[in-house]
Amino acid sequence: MRIFYGFVAFLVATSLPAARTIQARSDKEQPQTVVSGTAVQSVVPVQAQLGSGMGASSSSSSSSSSSGGPGNSAFHPLGPYVSCSFLPRDFLECKDPVDRHENATAKNGKPIGCVKWGGSTYEDVEHTEVLCTVFSDIECYGNRTFLRAGVPCIRYTDHYFVTTLIYSMLLGFLGMDRFCLGQTGTAVGKLLTMGGVGVWWIIDVILLITNNLLPEDGSNWNPYV
Predict the structure, then answer these.
(1) 0.70 exceeded by pTM
(2) What is the pLDDT of residue 211?
(3) Cβ proximity of 79 and 137 under 8 Å
(4) Which of 87, 181, 191, 220 has the least CB density, counted as fewest CB within 10 Å?
Protein backbone atom coordinates (compact mmCIF):
# COMPACT_ATOMS: atom_id res chain seq x y z
CA MET A 1 0.00 0.00 0.00
CA ARG A 2 2.82 2.40 0.80
CA ILE A 3 4.36 1.64 -2.58
CA PHE A 4 1.06 2.50 -4.31
CA TYR A 5 0.73 5.83 -2.47
CA GLY A 6 4.34 6.64 -3.26
CA PHE A 7 3.77 5.99 -6.98
CA VAL A 8 0.65 8.23 -7.04
CA ALA A 9 2.55 11.02 -5.30
CA PHE A 10 5.34 10.72 -7.89
CA LEU A 11 2.88 11.04 -10.78
CA VAL A 12 1.26 14.11 -9.24
CA ALA A 13 4.63 15.76 -8.64
CA THR A 14 5.77 15.22 -12.25
CA SER A 15 2.49 16.39 -13.86
CA LEU A 16 2.30 19.74 -12.08
CA PRO A 17 5.33 21.44 -13.82
CA ALA A 18 4.09 20.34 -17.24
CA ALA A 19 0.63 21.79 -16.55
CA ARG A 20 2.16 25.05 -15.35
CA THR A 21 4.29 25.25 -18.54
CA ILE A 22 1.26 24.77 -20.79
CA GLN A 23 -0.72 27.35 -18.85
CA ALA A 24 2.13 29.88 -19.10
CA ARG A 25 2.45 29.32 -22.83
CA SER A 26 -1.29 29.83 -23.36
CA ASP A 27 -1.14 33.02 -21.30
CA LYS A 28 1.63 34.37 -23.53
CA GLU A 29 -0.34 33.71 -26.69
CA GLN A 30 -3.45 35.49 -25.43
CA PRO A 31 -3.65 39.27 -25.92
CA GLN A 32 -3.00 41.14 -22.70
CA THR A 33 -4.46 44.41 -21.61
CA VAL A 34 -2.04 46.94 -20.14
CA VAL A 35 -3.31 49.95 -18.26
CA SER A 36 -0.98 52.91 -18.68
CA GLY A 37 -2.34 56.01 -16.93
CA THR A 38 -5.77 56.55 -18.45
CA ALA A 39 -5.09 54.68 -21.75
CA VAL A 40 -5.86 51.02 -22.13
CA GLN A 41 -3.68 49.18 -24.67
CA SER A 42 -4.02 45.67 -25.99
CA VAL A 43 -0.71 43.85 -26.22
CA VAL A 44 -0.53 41.13 -28.87
CA PRO A 45 2.28 38.57 -28.74
CA VAL A 46 5.13 39.01 -31.25
CA GLN A 47 4.52 35.64 -32.87
CA ALA A 48 0.91 36.58 -33.60
CA GLN A 49 2.01 39.88 -35.17
CA LEU A 50 4.55 38.11 -37.34
CA GLY A 51 1.97 35.59 -38.43
CA SER A 52 -0.54 38.27 -39.37
CA GLY A 53 2.15 40.26 -41.21
CA MET A 54 3.18 37.23 -43.23
CA GLY A 55 -0.44 36.56 -44.10
CA ALA A 56 -0.94 40.14 -45.28
CA SER A 57 2.23 40.09 -47.36
CA SER A 58 1.32 36.78 -48.96
CA SER A 59 -2.16 38.05 -49.79
CA SER A 60 -0.74 41.26 -51.27
CA SER A 61 1.83 39.34 -53.30
CA SER A 62 -0.83 36.97 -54.57
CA SER A 63 -3.05 39.89 -55.52
CA SER A 64 -0.16 41.64 -57.30
CA SER A 65 0.79 38.47 -59.14
CA SER A 66 -2.79 37.89 -60.17
CA SER A 67 -3.05 41.46 -61.45
CA GLY A 68 -0.61 40.57 -64.22
CA GLY A 69 2.40 42.93 -64.26
CA PRO A 70 3.53 46.00 -66.21
CA GLY A 71 2.14 44.78 -69.50
CA ASN A 72 -1.46 44.38 -68.31
CA SER A 73 -1.89 47.80 -66.67
CA ALA A 74 -2.04 51.26 -68.17
CA PHE A 75 1.34 52.85 -68.85
CA HIS A 76 2.36 55.42 -66.25
CA PRO A 77 5.11 57.80 -67.43
CA LEU A 78 6.32 58.35 -63.86
CA GLY A 79 6.30 54.64 -63.02
CA PRO A 80 9.30 52.34 -62.70
CA TYR A 81 8.93 50.79 -66.18
CA VAL A 82 10.16 52.33 -69.42
CA SER A 83 8.45 51.76 -72.73
CA CYS A 84 10.22 48.98 -74.62
CA SER A 85 10.51 51.10 -77.76
CA PHE A 86 12.45 53.75 -75.79
CA LEU A 87 15.23 51.38 -74.69
CA PRO A 88 18.72 52.03 -76.14
CA ARG A 89 20.40 49.63 -78.53
CA ASP A 90 22.46 48.09 -75.70
CA PHE A 91 19.34 46.39 -74.30
CA LEU A 92 18.04 45.14 -77.65
CA GLU A 93 18.86 42.38 -80.08
CA CYS A 94 18.29 43.83 -83.54
CA LYS A 95 18.54 42.12 -86.88
CA ASP A 96 20.65 43.47 -89.71
CA PRO A 97 18.95 45.67 -92.31
CA VAL A 98 17.51 43.84 -95.30
CA ASP A 99 19.70 44.17 -98.39
CA ARG A 100 17.62 45.25 -101.39
CA HIS A 101 20.78 45.68 -103.53
CA GLU A 102 19.63 48.67 -105.57
CA ASN A 103 16.24 47.07 -106.20
CA ALA A 104 13.68 49.75 -105.37
CA THR A 105 10.77 47.62 -106.59
CA ALA A 106 11.56 44.95 -103.99
CA LYS A 107 11.09 47.55 -101.29
CA ASN A 108 7.55 48.17 -102.62
CA GLY A 109 6.99 51.36 -100.67
CA LYS A 110 7.83 49.74 -97.33
CA PRO A 111 10.41 51.36 -95.02
CA ILE A 112 12.15 48.02 -94.44
CA GLY A 113 15.33 47.34 -96.38
CA CYS A 114 18.29 49.24 -97.81
CA VAL A 115 18.49 49.99 -101.51
CA LYS A 116 21.76 51.93 -101.21
CA TRP A 117 24.55 51.29 -98.73
CA GLY A 118 27.12 53.67 -97.34
CA GLY A 119 27.63 57.39 -97.62
CA SER A 120 30.08 59.99 -96.38
CA THR A 121 27.50 62.50 -95.03
CA TYR A 122 24.23 62.17 -93.15
CA GLU A 123 22.20 63.22 -96.18
CA ASP A 124 23.85 60.55 -98.32
CA VAL A 125 23.07 57.73 -95.90
CA GLU A 126 19.77 55.92 -96.32
CA HIS A 127 17.80 54.95 -93.21
CA THR A 128 15.49 52.00 -92.66
CA GLU A 129 13.66 49.98 -90.00
CA VAL A 130 14.88 46.79 -88.37
CA LEU A 131 13.17 44.23 -86.13
CA CYS A 132 14.39 44.43 -82.52
CA THR A 133 13.66 42.26 -79.47
CA VAL A 134 14.28 43.21 -75.83
CA PHE A 135 16.62 40.93 -73.88
CA SER A 136 14.80 38.45 -71.66
CA ASP A 137 16.29 39.81 -68.40
CA ILE A 138 15.17 43.41 -69.10
CA GLU A 139 11.77 44.53 -67.81
CA CYS A 140 9.86 47.16 -69.79
CA TYR A 141 6.33 48.15 -70.77
CA GLY A 142 4.69 47.22 -74.06
CA ASN A 143 5.56 44.86 -76.88
CA ARG A 144 9.00 43.31 -76.50
CA THR A 145 9.39 42.87 -80.27
CA PHE A 146 8.98 45.94 -82.45
CA LEU A 147 10.38 47.82 -85.45
CA ARG A 148 13.14 50.33 -84.66
CA ALA A 149 13.22 53.19 -87.16
CA GLY A 150 16.09 55.45 -88.17
CA VAL A 151 18.73 52.72 -88.55
CA PRO A 152 21.43 53.84 -91.03
CA CYS A 153 22.18 51.63 -94.02
CA ILE A 154 25.85 51.31 -93.18
CA ARG A 155 27.97 48.19 -93.01
CA TYR A 156 31.63 47.66 -92.29
CA THR A 157 34.01 45.18 -93.89
CA ASP A 158 37.77 44.75 -93.79
CA HIS A 159 38.52 48.05 -95.53
CA TYR A 160 40.71 50.46 -93.55
CA PHE A 161 41.40 53.97 -94.78
CA VAL A 162 44.94 54.27 -93.39
CA THR A 163 46.00 50.91 -94.80
CA THR A 164 44.56 51.69 -98.24
CA LEU A 165 46.22 55.12 -98.28
CA ILE A 166 49.61 53.59 -97.48
CA TYR A 167 49.16 51.04 -100.27
CA SER A 168 48.18 53.83 -102.67
CA MET A 169 51.21 55.97 -101.83
CA LEU A 170 53.79 53.18 -101.87
CA LEU A 171 52.40 50.60 -104.29
CA GLY A 172 49.85 52.65 -106.18
CA PHE A 173 51.70 52.27 -109.49
CA LEU A 174 50.96 48.52 -109.22
CA GLY A 175 47.26 49.09 -108.56
CA MET A 176 47.49 47.65 -105.06
CA ASP A 177 45.05 50.21 -103.63
CA ARG A 178 42.31 49.32 -106.10
CA PHE A 179 42.92 45.62 -105.56
CA CYS A 180 42.30 46.18 -101.84
CA LEU A 181 39.08 48.07 -102.56
CA GLY A 182 37.73 45.25 -104.72
CA GLN A 183 38.00 47.17 -108.01
CA THR A 184 39.75 44.41 -109.87
CA GLY A 185 39.13 45.68 -113.43
CA THR A 186 40.64 49.13 -112.96
CA ALA A 187 43.38 47.65 -110.78
CA VAL A 188 44.57 45.44 -113.65
CA GLY A 189 44.56 48.41 -116.02
CA LYS A 190 46.53 50.45 -113.51
CA LEU A 191 49.03 47.62 -113.13
CA LEU A 192 49.56 47.22 -116.89
CA THR A 193 50.09 50.95 -117.41
CA MET A 194 52.32 51.28 -114.33
CA GLY A 195 49.90 53.64 -112.66
CA GLY A 196 49.07 55.50 -115.86
CA VAL A 197 52.73 56.52 -116.14
CA GLY A 198 52.46 58.04 -112.67
CA VAL A 199 49.43 60.25 -113.38
CA TRP A 200 46.80 57.71 -112.35
CA TRP A 201 48.88 56.96 -109.28
CA ILE A 202 48.72 60.60 -108.08
CA ILE A 203 45.04 60.97 -108.98
CA ASP A 204 44.06 57.95 -106.88
CA VAL A 205 45.93 59.33 -103.86
CA ILE A 206 43.97 62.58 -104.18
CA LEU A 207 40.70 60.68 -104.60
CA LEU A 208 41.37 58.69 -101.44
CA ILE A 209 42.16 61.77 -99.38
CA THR A 210 39.02 63.58 -100.59
CA ASN A 211 36.89 60.47 -99.85
CA ASN A 212 35.94 59.95 -103.49
CA LEU A 213 37.52 56.52 -103.84
CA LEU A 214 35.54 54.05 -101.74
CA PRO A 215 35.20 50.26 -101.46
CA GLU A 216 33.42 48.57 -104.32
CA ASP A 217 30.89 46.76 -102.11
CA GLY A 218 29.48 50.06 -100.83
CA SER A 219 30.70 49.57 -97.25
CA ASN A 220 32.17 52.35 -95.16
CA TRP A 221 35.69 52.57 -93.85
CA ASN A 222 36.16 50.42 -90.78
CA PRO A 223 36.67 52.81 -87.83
CA TYR A 224 38.52 50.19 -85.76
CA VAL A 225 42.22 49.72 -86.42
Answers:
(1) no
(2) 85
(3) no
(4) 191
